[in-house]
Amino acid sequence: MTSENAPENVEETEVSRATGEAGSPQEVAGAGEGLGSDAPQSSDAAESSDSVQPTALFVRRERRMNLGGWVVLALVVGALTGLVWGMFRGVFEIAPLLIAALYGVIFVGVGLALVAVIVDWVLERRRVKQK
C-alpha cells in the first residue's frame, strides 16, 4: 500500500505540484516558447519550477499510542465505569446516568489519566537517558 508521500513518490509529487499537474517540467518550460512570448516570461516559468518547496515526511516508527490517546482512553473508561455503576445502583434515567458518567470521568478517568501521564514521563526520561 503506497501513499502520495511515500519516499519513492516524493519526486513525482513535487514535480506534479510544481507543474500544476500539467506534465513534465520540460513540457511546461517549453510551452511558452512556441506562443511568441518574450524570453523573460519563459525564464520566470523555469525559475518557478526550479524553486519547488520540499515536502515534509512524517514517519511513525513505533506502533504505540501517544499520551493524548491514553488520556482519552482513560476518560472514556471512567465514563463507562460511571455508567455501569449507575446502572448497578438501579438508575435508568438519562440525567442521573449522565451525572454518574461525569463522576466516573472525574474520579476514575482523571486518576487513570494521571497514571498514564506519569508512566509516559518515566518512560520518556528513561529513553532520553539511554541515548
- The pLDDT mean sits at 77
Helix fraction, binned, reads 55-70%
**How far is the N terminus from the C terminus?**
33 Å
Strand content: under 5%
Let me know the number of strands: 0
Q: What's the tally of helices?
A: 5
| Estimated radius of gyration | 28 Å
Task: Describe what this molecule looks like in 3D.
The chain has 131 residues and is mostly helical. It is built from five helices and no strands. The chain has helices at residues 10-18, 25-31, 39-50, 67-88, 94-130. α2 runs antiparallel to α3 (39-50). The chain is elongated.
Summarize this, please?
The chain is built from 5 helices and no strands.
Protein traits:
66% helix, mainly alpha, 131 residues, single chain, 5 helices
Task: Summarize the topology.
Layout: H1 10-18, H2 25-31, H3 39-50, H4 67-88, H5 94-130
